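User: What would this chain look like folded?
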Amino acid sequence: MPYFDTASAAPLHPVARQALQAALDEGWADPARLYREGRRARLLLDAAREAAAEAVGCRADELVFTPSGTHAVHTGVAGALAGRRRVGGQLVVSAVEHSSVLHAADAHAAAGGTVTEVPVDRLGAVSPDGYAAALGSGTALACLQSANHEVGTVQPVAEVAEVCAAAGVPLLVDAAQSLGWGRVDAPWSLLTASAHKWGGPPGIGLLAVRKGVRFAPQGPADERESGRSPGFANLPAIVAAAASLRAVRAEAEAESARLRVLVDRIRRRVARLVPDVEVVGDAERRLPHLVTFSCLYVDGETLLHELDRAGYSVSSGSSCTSSTLTPSHVLRAMGVLSEGNVRVSLPRGTSADEVNGFLEVLPGAVAGVREKLGVGEPVTVAPVAESLELDALGLRCPQPVIELARAIGRVPVGGTVTVLSDDEVARLDIPAWCAMRGHDYLGESPRPGGTAYTVRRTA
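Assistant: Here's the prediction, encoded as C-alpha cells.
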C-alpha cells in the first residue's frame, strides 16, 4: 500500500533503525556521569550533536535536542522574545506558518504582546517587502518557515533574513519540512526542525540559536542541553535522528531530482485527468516531493477515505472536511480552493509505477464522490430571473458551492446569484469557484444566521 504522506511523518530510515538499536545497547546510561557507561553515552551524544550541527550549518554548542519539533519552536520563540523584551513586544510571523508557530504567537498575544501577520500571494509565498513593512523599532522576533508544510512552496528566507538583519531583528526559521533536503542557506538567528520529518524517530527536535542572539530560556532552570531543553535526553533516539539526517542528506540530491520528476507528472496529469481541479502552490520554487490540489464539488474527507480504500495513503492540507468546518489557514491565506483538498508527499524510494497507479485511481475516486453528492453535468435552462437568492444555511462544504453551480445558469449574463451560508468554508470556496469559472465575486454581507455571498454571471 503506497504511503504518500511523508510531510506528516516520513517512514523510519534504515540507518535510523540500525542506529537506534545500537544506541539502545550502548547509550542507555546518563551522559552526565563520569563512570565508563556515562562516558560512553556522552561520546554518543557529542557525536550526534556534531553530526546534526554540521547538517544544520551551525556550531555544535549552538544546537540542542528537544522532545519534539513543536517543543523546539515553542522554546525558541519564547526564549527569543524573553531575551529581547526590552526592545519591545512585537512578534512578526507569516500567515502560513505551521500551527506550532501560530500557537506560540497566540500565547504571546495572550500574555500582552502583539503579533503581526505578513500576507502571502496566491502561490503561498511571502515577499521580503512584506516583512520590511511589518518590522518596527519594537519588533522582538520574526519567524518564517523555510518551506510550507501544506503546499510545498519554498519561502525567500535569504532575502527576508537580510531584511531582518538590516532592522536588527532576529529571524527564527522553522526548517521542519526542508532540512532533510539541504541546509537553509541564509543568515538566520534561530532554527528549528523535527526528526520524524526526515525519517528519524519521532520525539526528537532540534533548536539552534546562533551565538550573539539574546536568548532567555523560560521555565525552571535545568543543567542539561545548555539549560534550553530540560529533562533526561532520549539518547538512542537522538543518535538515530542524527545518523538518519546525515544519511538522507547524502541521498538528497539524487532523490530530489527523481521525485521532482514524479511530482511534476502528478501536477500535469491531475489537471488533465480530473475536471474542475486547482493545483496549488508554486510550480518551481517548491519542495521536490510534495504537491497539493483541490477538487471542486468534493467532500475532502470522503475523498481521502476513497483513496485509502483504493490503497493510497494521502492527507489533506485543509481542515475543510465534513467533520471540521474551517478551512486550512494556509489555503485561506492563499485565497485558493479548499474543497476536496489532497496533499501528496512522496517518501524516498517512491516508484514511477506507484505514482502511475495513483493517477489511474484518482479520477474514478473523485467522480465517485461527486456522484454521491449529486453533481452532474449542468443542465441548460433558460434564465428565470435577473437575480436569485439561495438558502444554503445548514449545508456544509462543498454543498453551498454545488448549489451555486446549479443556479448560475438560471440567471442571464450580468445577473447575480446570492448564496446564504453559515459555513465558514464558503468564505474561501465561493470566491475560488468564481476565479476558476470566470464569474465575478461581488463580496459578502452579514445576514441573520450566516453570510450572503453574491456572484455575477459573466459567461
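The radius of gyration is 24 Å. If you want, I can go into more detail on any region.
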